[in-house]
Amino acid sequence: MLRTSPYLFLIVLHMKIIGVSMKLLISYQKDILKFIVSSVLSVVQGCTEGWMEFMGSCYIHFDERETWTSAEQHCQELNSHLVSISSQQEQEFVKTHDYQWIGLNDKDVQNQFRWTDGSPLVRTPSSEILSKLNNYFSTGEDCVVMIWHEDGQWNDVPCNYHLPFTCKSGSGKKR
């Protein structure tokens, strides 16, 4: 049985005294219950609706295809960044059934890869290929993509490709 606040009892009593109809009263109780449930879920999950919680961070995936710069800007508008990967578990969580942008790039200094959120570059099996990133076109491959059909391997590609992307935020930022 759901325990309610003593304040709810007082509100109900007050509404009965002033003559609020039972239908309105029931509707009001439903609204209060929805608010309580959504508040509890927000605290428990730590992420806003639509975002998924994993290991203390919040994630949201977008299927819309954008350039790397536009995707990062979209994430920043949501107080987040393109996803950074700090463990193999996180890599598995983020990996989807499509290519996608991640927040790794060497736009400032060639071959010095950095995450857009400033987090340290932690070695994972996928990040080990950083030393092998091929710059196939010789120059202009400054942004990193996760390739789902190669078990989430990373590769550098031109930043003007249009790809899906995932944003990542710390859990406290999305409430």
From TrEMBL:
Protein's name according to its UniProt entry: C-type lectin domain-containing protein
Pfam families, sorted: Lectin_C
Domain C-type lectin: 54-168
Source species: Sinocyclocheilus grahami
InterPro entries: C-type_lectin-like, C-type_lectin-like/link_sf, C-type_lectin/snaclec_domain, C-type_lectin_CS, CTDL_fold
UniProt entry keywords in alphabetical sequence: Disulfide bond, Membrane, Transmembrane, Transmembrane helix
TM helices/strands, residue ranges: 6-26
